[in-house]
Amino acid sequence: QLALEAFIQSNQEIQKVMHDHNQRLAPSHGYTNDYLTKNCVKVVEELALLDTEMSSALLKAHDQIRNLTSRIDLLTEENQIDPLTKFYNRKELFKDLMSITENLQSDGDPECYLLMIDMDDFKAINDTYSHLAGDKTLVFVSRTIASLIRGSDKAYRFGGDEFIIVLNRSTLNAAQSTAEKIRQNIEKARLFYENKEIRITVSIGVSKLSGKEFETSLRRADRALYEAKNKTKNQTFKKPVATPYK
Questions:
Q1: Which one, out of 11, 117, 186, 201, has a CA that is 20 to 30 A from the CA of 106?
Q2: Phi/psi class of residue 68: alpha, beta or left (left: φ > 0; alpha: ψ in -120 to 50)?
């Protein structure tokens, strides 16, 4: 709708410039063929004026299109990005997983792995320090994760204090190694809020993304996360592909 309105407005302004110029050069205003032949300088001046007015109208149209493009880009980003962590959102995760699993059809395809990351005792942080402190820890954790994954991997905020990382073209050993680096870096970090230290740990479930329905892979990663939580938290746990969860 915005694009259509911008196009219509720009087109109308350009047409108005052309219409006004044609009116000025119309025979009814004395611009007959004989007059035009004898007054070349005047005609050139009118054409120069037309060029100036057209350039102005086109420049204005260009600015409108540029501003519209920026607004569209912003709306697109807002529809894909979690505003707090700057990770992709849950909607984008489902779209990407659907695309990936559709292409994982044969055993020879590169393997992809899921890391499901959950902050330990996040509610206690909110209750003890405030929700602003909770937001600060979410931002800290997301930045730590982003610094430890590859450019080809994608990070998502799954909801609340839970994140999912899609490791493309990976192996189980590499996925476990990445998960452990994330867990250890967060555990060793020191975060302060209003001169009070907030200790943060995370639990991580690791699971292979299989070339079937992506919900199955998510359930398997969630089960792995549950096992990590069940083992005193601050743990990494992997779940084999063969284990079904419904």
A1: 117
A2: alpha
**Which tokens belong to 231?**
């083992």
Q: Could you say which of 118, 153, 161, 222 is catalytic?
A: 161
Partner residues linked to 108 by β-bridges: none
Task: Give the β-pairing of 236-239 and 162-167.
Answer: unpaired
Looking at residue 111, the DSSP 8-state letter turns out to be P
**pTM, entire model:** 0.68
Q: What pLDDT, in 10s, does the model give residues 57-110?
A: 667 766 766 666 565 555 555 688 999 999 999 999 999 998 888 777 655 667
Determine contact, residues 169/111, Cβ cutoff 8 Å: yes
Give the integer Cα–Cα distance in Å for 165 and 73.
Answer: 24
In the chain, the amino acid numbered 181 is K
**Whole-angstrom distance, CA of residue 66 vs CA of residue 60:** 10
Q: Rounded to an integer, what distance in angstroms lies between the CA atom of residue 237 and that of residue 217?
A: 15
Q: Which two tokens stand for residue 183?
A: 């867990």
Q: Summarize pLDDT for 170-191 with one digit per residue, the tens.
A: 999 999 999 999 999 999 998 9
The CA-based dihedral angle spanning residues 95, 101, 103, 107, taken in that order and rounded to the nearest 10 degrees: 160
∠ at Cα 225 (220, 226), nearest 5°?
A: 95
Mark whether 51 is an active-site residue. Answer: no
Integer Cα distance of 217 and 113 in angstroms: 9
Do residues 202 and 158 make contact, with C-beta atoms less than 8 angstroms apart? no
CB-side neighbour CA atoms (13 Å) of 12: 6
